[in-house]
């Protein structure tokens, strides 16, 4: 009896420990599941993988206090009499490429007036006029082709707009800067790099990815910006591409013949091998599709480890160090203004 009681007692204690342990394991599993669900809910975009598809990771809490941005770069400096002085903003005389030089009393189309203010292109200005979002001297104007003089008071969204002095600035963009005029996550943007360059508002022409370096043009000329980003002008861009492995000859030939991606066929104008190990390439392309260079090589199983835009619309980054900028000279601006639509037959962009 004592032996039975002892075993019975032992058995009861074991069963109690087993039941308690199962409860603990169940509660731990439940807490782990809760943690996993919390992590999934708080996932955030981390960039793109080798196949150029978005990747996500665990969310990291950020300090809500806005930290002041310390500008690490500065404009190009020129030595004058032993002193270093920042490049001054030039004045452009563009009357040579205009039909007539407008005086204050001369009439100008309303859409051009709006475009010259840097808000948008002429075509987009026509849409604003049709929607009744533009007022001239207190009256809503919806008539296309309406003309104003420079002394007229033109209003958009309750604010007066006026033609600004044209500004054209070329930046050699470094890595880890986002091409946007405003970022809600308060990350570093390209606007930090040109802050204080001039009094006029500047906007980037097109965009470069966060990890892409090289030439990026800024201007307040809405009409020119629309021209340089429109597919019909086939603006030439040249990139230096660095791959994670040597480029095979058959892949090089296939890229030159044209690459069909998820958004259609993309043509490459030229592709040259620049290094003995066949990992550094020179690529000429006119397409302005999003992340097009990276997607082309990802299609063939390559990862672009470095991408640098060395030429844009005939402009090069000669004498512009990484993170610095310079103003375009008058000749360069005139060349951009004279750029015409491509005379080539229609082809995939």
UniProtKB/TrEMBL annotation:
Gene3D superfamilies per UniProt: Alpha-L RNA-binding motif, Pseudouridine synthase I, catalytic domain, N-terminal subdomain, RNA-binding S4 domain
Leader peptide range in chain numbering: none
PROSITE patterns named in the record: PSI_RSU, S4
InterPro entries: PsdUridine_s_RsuA/RluB/E/F_cat (IPR042092), PsdUridine_synth_cat_dom_sf (IPR020103), PsdUridine_synth_RsuA/RluA (IPR006145), PsdUridine_synth_RsuA/RluB/E/F (IPR000748), PsdUridine_synth_RsuA/RluB_CS (IPR018496), RsuA_PseudoU_synthase (IPR050343), S4_RNA-bd (IPR002942), S4_RNA-bd_sf (IPR036986)
Membrane among keywords: no
CDD domains in UniProt: PseudoU_synth_RsuA_like, S4
Family, per entry: Belongs to the pseudouridine synthase RsuA family.
Protein name (Swiss-Prot/TrEMBL): Pseudouridine synthase
Organism annotation: Cyclobacterium plantarum
High-level lineage: Bacteria, Pseudomonadati, Bacteroidota, Cytophagia, Cytophagales
């Amino acid at each position: 009896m004592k032996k039975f009681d002892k075993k019975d007692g032992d058995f009861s204690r074991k069963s109690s420990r087993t039941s308690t342990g199962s409860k603990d394991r169940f509660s731990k599993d439940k807490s782990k599941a809760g943690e996993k669900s919390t992590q999934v809910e708080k996932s955030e975009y981390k960039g793109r993988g080798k196949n150029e598809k978005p990747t996500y990771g665990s969310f990291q809490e950020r300090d809500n206090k806005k930290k002041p941005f310390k500008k690490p770069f500065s404009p190009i400096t020129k030595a004058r009499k032993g002193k270093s002085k920042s490049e001054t903003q030039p004045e452009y005389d563009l009357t040579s490429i205009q039909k007539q030089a407008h005086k204050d009393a001369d009439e100008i189309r309303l859409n051009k007036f709006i475009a010259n203010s840097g808000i948008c292109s002429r075509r987009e200005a026509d849409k604003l006029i049709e929607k009744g979002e533009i007022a001239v001297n207190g009256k809503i104007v919806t008539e296309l082709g309406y003309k104003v003089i420079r002394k007229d008071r033109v209003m958009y969204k309750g604010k007066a707009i006026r033609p600004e002095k044209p500004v054209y600035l070329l930046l050699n963009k470094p890595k880890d800067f986002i091409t946007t005029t405003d970022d809600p996550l308060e990350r570093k943007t390209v606007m930090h790099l040109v802050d204080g360059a001039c009094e006029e508002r500047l906007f980037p022409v097109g965009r470069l990815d966060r990890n892409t370096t090289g030439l990026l043009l800024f201007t307040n000329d809405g009409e020119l910006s629309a021209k340089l980003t429109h597919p019909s002008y086939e603006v030439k861009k040249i990139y230096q591409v660095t791959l994670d492995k040597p480029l095979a000859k058959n892949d090089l030939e296939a890229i030159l013949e044209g690459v069909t991606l998820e958004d259609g066929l993309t043509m490459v104008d030229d592709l040259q091998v620049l290094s003995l190990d066949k990992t550094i390439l020179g690529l000429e392309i006119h397409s302005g599709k999003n992340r097009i260079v990276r997607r082309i090589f990802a299609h063939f199983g390559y990862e672009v480890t470095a991408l640098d835009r060395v030429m844009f619309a005939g402009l090069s980054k000669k004498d512009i160090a990484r993170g610095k900028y310079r103003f375009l000279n008058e000749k360069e601006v005139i060349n951009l203004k004279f750029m015409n639509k491509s005379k080539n037959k229609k082809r995939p962009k």
